[in-house]
Design brief:
This protein has one domain. Helix content is 79%, strand content 0%. It contains six helices and no strands. Helix 2 runs parallel beside helix 6. The chain is globular and about 65 Å long. The two termini are 33 Å apart.
Length: 220
């Protein structure tokens, strides 16, 4: 195991243990009050979802065009994390929306495109699991398509009229909120840096075990 892993574990634990305290001390937003503090989990998890989707797409492209099996493992690992962090986004978003907008869900550009992107990566995992021979290449093509949706999802709130805040919210945060927000972003990034290589390593060990199992069958 990489020697940096214990430090990443300690860093992730320390960051996530400290984040709730800082979020509690952060000033309240003038119109939404307490519920606005979901922002410190919702937006960083969305940023990590985008990043892991990009990693999945790039690794899948390397697998498609260069037959790089290690890249395929990283793609599969990143897809799983995209789905996990995307689920956090899709749960925290409606919780926030119900209080801020009075509804759980609106079929506007940002919300709908985020859901569709999440469904693409969930479908990627299903294809890999149940698609049969050649499923890895089909899933890789899906991941490249899913990655292409990332910039579309990001800019959708700036192109179409939507009740979702635009991308200009973060630069305009009050000083007391800005530092807490970037601290939360750092916590989620460290968590991604910890989980992604661990999941890829687990995939490599699983492949080695399957090879040994096949060798045992051939020996018989």
């Amino acid at each position: 195991m990489n020697r940096s892993y214990p430090f990443l574990v300690l860093a992730a634990v320390g960051l996530f243990a400290t984040a709730p305290v800082l979020i509690d001390l952060a000033p309240y937003e003038s119109t939404m009050g307490l519920v606005q503090k979901i922002f410190y989990y919702h937006v960083p998890s969305a940023m990590v979802m985008f990043l892991s989707a990009l990693v999945c797409g790039v690794a899948s492209a390397l697998y498609l065009f260069r037959k790089n099996t290690a890249a395929d493992r990283w793609a599969s690992s990143a897809a799983e994390l995209t789905v996990v962090f995307g689920l956090i986004v899709l749960v925290t978003g409606p919780l926030w929306a119900r209080k801020a907008w009075g509804v759980w869900w609106q079929w506007d550009a940002r919300l709908t495109s985020t859901l569709l992107m999440w469904m693409i990566f969930a479908a990627y995992l299903l294809v890999r699991r149940f698609g049969g021979p050649g499923a890895e290449k089909l899933a890789a093509a899906m991941a490249v398509f899913g990655m292409a949706n990332v910039p579309f999802v990001y800019v959708s709130v700036n192109i179409w009229r939507t009740i979702h805040p635009t991308t200009r919210v973060v630069p305009t945060l009050a000083p007391g909120m800005r530092g807490v927000f970037w601290f939360a972003v750092l916590a989620f990034m460290v968590l991604l840096a910890l989980l992604l290589p661990l999941r890829a390593r687990l995939g490599a060990r699983r492949e080695e075990l399957e090879e040994l199992y096949l060798m045992g069958d051939e020996g018989e």
